Amino acid sequence: MTEPTGPLRGLRVFDLTRVLAGPTCVQMLGDLGAEVIKIEKPGSGDDTRGFAPPFMPGSRESAYFVGVNRNKQSVTLDISQPEGQAIARKLVSQCDILVENFKVGALAKYELSYEQLRSEHPGLIYCSITGFGQTGPYAPRPGYDSLIQAMGGVMSLTGEPDGLPQKVGVPVGDLFAGLYGCIGILAALRHKERTGQGQQIDIGMLDTSVAWLANQGMNFLATGENPARLGNQHPNIVPYQVFPTADGHVVLSVGNDPTFRRFCENFGLGGLPDDPRFATNAARVEHRQLVTDTLTPVLQGHPTAWWVERLESLKIGCGPINKLADVFGDPQVAARGMVVELPHAGTESGQVRVIANPVRLSETPVDYRISPPLLGADTDDVLRTMAGLDAAEVAALRERGIV
Questions:
Q1: Same domain as 279, residue 133
Q2: What CATH number has the domain bearing residue 56?
Q3: Which of 124, 145, 188, 253 could form a disulfide with 317 if both were Cys (CB 3.0 to 4.6 A apart)?
Q4: Is 378 within the bounds of a domain?
Q5: Active-site residue set
Q6: Taking the model in full, what pTM does it have?
Q7: Is the pLDDT of residue 48 over 90?
Q8: Looking at the domain assignment, is residue 377 inside a domain?
């Protein structure tokens, strides 16, 4: 394992998370240089180890697990047993941050709740990520991404006008909760730097989903009306949507009136911007269907590549609708290094490819020190160096199923 170089180097995280929201949060901390001790259940580990197929090529490692668990050391430990709890508390005593996504109150029976740890470790930053937060009538409920997307309103906004409400194609409820958790931890670290005081960070997936309703949430607060589902159209800007082309589709993003005029003047619609129904964005929003019907035959007149080339030359927002093969083959994605290859003992090739961290820091760049770990790969080393156990003691614990 190489030494971390990121801005959080020297910090240690006790990771009691699994699935996606918590592991996303902790992987970001690990990428930024923190040392991460990931606690997993002996024999099975993080639930996502079983979320397969697909497996990574030439391995029995699930792609799901590999995607959010790099830069972590895996320690198997049964925290439901008193011996496991004692070891966990010893490890926590040497950590700066604890991240967990158990149901509200569940860790108290393992002597690992914030209230149980804070007096002994007043500088501990303790981040709890749950479906509904630590308070409120829904606090005891479990949280799942699709449930949160439904309850948080985004499904009511997503889909075709006459179709069913749709969830987003990736688990954004989990991902946003993890990233908000990371933001909270970074803020708490700054507070601790000034005061020495730790704190609990309470992240509810429903809260974060409400927060990122953004312009659509504000549209509701301004009008009292639920925004209609518009398919691939924008609620506040027209034209800003998908159009059919001669051989597929293109996204046209016209963000202001001068850009709309430039589009019209270059593609045979020169008189349109002087028509009061088209002259301003507000008018175009009011006459959304007329704008769509007027522009559609124009866009259908040429292939997607033709439109992309010409619209880019005119500084008009546009782009193809890429499948993932197109995304990962895109020269811009390649130039930005958005796929990295890591050594991995669990694959036939000895390598795995993962999606890179998008945060670019000029002085303390993220690093990729540790491949997503095999289950329990670091148990012996961590228990020896952090818990003071020798090989015989670890072997005895393993015999009893504690590790």
A1: no
A2: 3.40.50.10540
A3: 253
A4: yes
A5: 174
A6: 0.94
A7: yes
A8: yes
